[in-house]
Amino acid sequence: MIIYYMIHKFLPNLVRKCELIINFVVKAIYEMNNASFQMKEKICRFYCYRNTRKQNQYTTNMMSKLELVIFDMDGVLTDIISSWKYIHDYFKTSNERSVNDYLKGKIDDMEFIKRDVFLWKENGKPTTKDRLVEILSDVPLMKGAKKCITNLKENEIKTAIISAGLDILAGKVAEELGIDYVLANGVKTDEQGYLSGVGVLGVRLMYKDWAVKTLAEQQNIPLERIASVGNSCFDVPMFEISGLGIAFNPEDDCIREAADAIVEGKDLSKILPFLERYVK
Fold this sequence. Notes:
The protein has 280 residues and is of the alpha/beta class. The chain has a single domain (51-276), classed as Rossmann fold. It is built from 11 helices and 9 strands. The strands form 2 sheets. The protein has a 7-stranded mixed beta sheet, with helices on both faces. Strands 2-3 form a two-stranded antiparallel ribbon. Residues 3-7 and 24-42 have low confidence and may be disordered.
């Protein structure tokens, strides 16, 4: 009788306490997972293309000597977000949907270029390549860019642009600064000089490491003797196969986490102290 009495008296309270504990634990786990998800969401403002592209298979030793510095163009050598966006802003168009489709693997680089070019029209007609040259003619160089490149040239260090931006601008910047090599993307024209919508693919946005490897092989430069300078998550693959990765004025947490060195602010000459130690 005593056991029966104790069970009926205490068991309901025990069950209620267990339920409270279980609910507390479940809620805590949910909040932890939600917080983790939110932290991951804050890392980059784009859909994570790492879920789409093939994993990087290269391994590179740490830098001991510097031979080549590779620069992203937009936001690094030039003081604009993107050469593509710069033109979209001029025509008051947006490629946000195409960006999302591309990063999720729904379209490839060539279709991405085709969609962008299709939006650039004046008086209902496609624009011309000469018009793009004119629009991009006033893009400002990044502060300290000239000083940075001049210093590297004086130390006999080769320089390159690897950019998924437009080669129209990349060629202009390279000529103005005296940069040795340029890899970027272009657009073709028809017989009348209007943009045809067909692209010239030099650098895949999600695969900049492929461009680094190609250039390194062409110039017979070991990957560990290459420094890469970028400002966004799309430059992370360059960092992964270079001897040194420098995040310049970084715009997201992805590039910060992948970098060997971080330079805040808009003065490209501030990367020089991180390179000088490898100049021999």
